[in-house]
Amino acid sequence: MTQTHLELSGVGIDFPTPKGPFTALNNVNLKVRDGEFVSLIGHSGCGKSTVLNIVAGLHKASRGGVLLNGKEVDEPGPERAVVFQNHSLLPWLTAWENVELAVKRVFGKTKSRAELKDWIAHNLELVHMGHAMHKRPGEISGGMKQRVGIARALAMQPSVLLLDEPFGALDALTRAHLQDSLMEIQAQLGTTVIMITHDVDEAVLLSDRIVMMTNGPSATVGQILDVDLERPRNRLALADDVHYNHLRSEVLTFLYEKQRKIEPISARATATTQAKKKTEVA
Amino acid sequence: MTAQTSTHPWRKLKLNLSHRLADFNPVQWLTSLLLPVTGIVVFLMLWHVGAGQINTSLGTFPGPVDVVEQSQSLWQGHVAEREKETAFYQRQEERNAARMADDPSYSPTIHSYPGKATFIDQIFTSLVTVLAGFLVSSVIAIPCGIIIGLSRSTYQAVNPIIQIFKPVSPLAWLPLVTMVVSAVYVSDDPMFEKSFITSLFTVTLCSLWPTLINTAVGVANIDRDLLNVSKVLRLPTFTHIRKIVIPSAIPMMFTGLRVSLGIAWMVLIAAEMLAQNPGLGKFVWDEFQNGSSNSLGRIMVAVLAIGLIGYALDRIMLMLQQAVSWDKTSEQR
Predict the structure, then answer these.
(1) CA-to-CA distance for A106 and B281, rounded, in angstroms?
(2) In this predicted structure, what is the pLDDT of residue B328?
């Protein structure tokens, strides 16, 4: 458990722009243990998703690198399964077929036909989608789609499960439901998870550690908070828990005092002063 | 189990019907029926009155009544011709049988009927030609569209060529195609008529572009998330194309195919007229040259037939699209 499973060392990335390279991330360092649940939180545009995409192999780091089980990550692969914000299921396939595509790709050569079938069914049951296995994404709700997306990712038996704001597009009740499911599954399987979120409650409730990111450009890890709450966690019991609320307020303090997003406000301020000047000239 | 499955579609149909009955709104139904009928009636009246005002050297412009008369006479002509044809073959058979009875070593030759193609035959020829041309253009355009759509650099390289050839009229291609076909397609026992090949390639050259462009655009605009899924799964190129690219692009592809088929049908009529290739276009041209008092009415029948067939082809494509595509919301225009 204490061994480093995934390591980001000195990760930085530059994006080319017409005005020259834009440094989105700089010197991001993070060690994740096996079976740990880590959340990345920060203001929108700070580069959380970019970090996740680098771990997934969808983006290439300009500096530094990512090690998974001691091997460098340089391209996408099923051992780092991703659940995207917008479910990203293939709309022309049923839930079953969507999971099947992934399962066949990963285990097609090692498992028998019957084993594959059982494995697909098992993963869909795990996310409580057993009743709607043969429905297409267009026929099920947003929460159900995201469940299937999670089933597809879990079915690849990933070393790390990467969740990119998985519940961001869902309503509050569905989100709470899925968070509980995710906690349950993670406790059962012991999967290592990295989750991007901008929901403070979600981060505190689900994580073992919360990685708070500074604002870009050159965003990096600002602070890491250990969430030492007992598991299994119950959202109702925790709502009145002093320690839970303390942790929550720490994240809030980081986000709204230390890393307050000031650019938009200052931009608006300059815009108004310019407008004033214009009226004065007129 | 079998009984259950056999009743299943019935139950579905019943359910469907009862739903429809529940949704049935007499007023809406009546207006949705009445408005098109009114449109047609008003059109027929205007046509009837207007046609009577136009005098040509071949008599007045054909009105709806002439068209009905001429379509009946064309149908009767077709039936009569068929009867003559069967009679011709029967006579031949009888004659050959008689000669075989006289002389057992005689091997009979069967002469084909020399009669002229009727209106119905011409429709049939045109349909076969347009479908063949459309098939060839689809077989070329869909794979090329996929390749162009997959790679931005190929797209940029090929785009100017597509844009230049897209607006070319079939009439400009026709002489070139005719010359090339007569030079290249030389065989003692040709499988197809040269005129058929010429029409086919003219149709292909003109109907290629909408399918090509739409397929390329459909492929180039696949959802980024789906591409990322494919990357995470490390799908091999061929599986990637089969499982992700083609299904994604199908709605756009069909939009292109429908436009292509419409163009193919228009182009074919023009090509047949100009090149005297058998088909509806030739029928129109022959009637025009014939210049009898019935000619204009017959041309008008052909015009309506061309329109109806074009409409039917489009509806068939739409039905095919709805059957094949996962996106059931595709527009029904």
Answers:
(1) 58
(2) 61
> In degrees rounded to 5, what are phi and psi of residue A213?
-105, 145
State whether ipTM is beyond 0.85: no
Residue with tokens 């947003």: A142
Q: Which of B225, B232, B243, B327 has the most A C-beta neighbours within 10 Å, making it the best mutation to test the interface with A?
A: B232
The 8 Å CB, 24+ separation contacts for A106-111 are A106/A78, A106/A155, A106/A156, A106/A157, A106/B233
The CATH number fitting domain A4-79+159-281, selected from 3.40.50.150, 3.50.50.60, 3.40.50.300, 3.40.50.360:
3.40.50.300
Q: Are A149 and A166 in contact (CB under 8 A)?
A: yes
Q: Where are the domains of chain B?
A: 117-324
Q: Which residue out of B227, B229, B237, B328 would a mutagenesis test of the A interface target, given it has the greatest number of A Cβ atoms within 10 Å?
A: B229
Residue contact B226–A76, C-beta within 8 A: no
Measure A126 CA to nearest chain B CA, in Å: 21
CB neighbour list of residue A265: distance below 8 Å, 6 or more residues apart = none
Q: What is the mean pLDDT of chain B?
A: 86
Query: Is A222 in contact with A259 (CB distance < 8 Å)?
Result: yes
DSSP B173-236: HHHHHHHHHHHH---SS-SS-HHHHHHHHHHHHHHHHHHHHHHHHHHHT--HHHHHHHHHTT--
CATH number of B117-324: 1.10.3720.10
Sites in chain A below the pLDDT cut of 70: 1-2, 261-282
Report the C-alpha gap between B241 and B225 in whole angstroms.
15
Run of H or E residues at B95: helix B64-102
